[in-house]
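Below is how a single chain appears once it has passed through the pipeline. First comes the sequence as given, then the structure the pipeline wrote out for it. We keep one example in the README because the format questions we get most often are answered faster by looking than by reading.
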Amino acid sequence: MYWIIESGGSPLSKNSTGELLKSTTIEVYYRDRNYKNVYDKINTLEETISCAGCIQLNGFDIIKLDVVSYPIDQDLDNEDRKIGMLQVNILTYKEC
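Resulting structure:
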């Protein structure tokens, strides 16, 4: 099961005509008791998100998309479970 947290976004610039350049960060977590399952799911998701044109947002043009994968770690809530995390940084442009 994936756990997704939208960590917020911030406008980088806004033109006088209303066009907006915005940076948004999303964190995606995956937990499982099996280390290999966590590794496989996180790597497959990273490949899916990173491919050109795979992510589309209605009303926005994606200028840049970076995916950062962090090492798999022990889940603090459960000693028998592993947790993997991806951080997705999206730079978008929206016309008025």
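The chain is about 15% helix and 55% strand.

See the next section for the split statistics.
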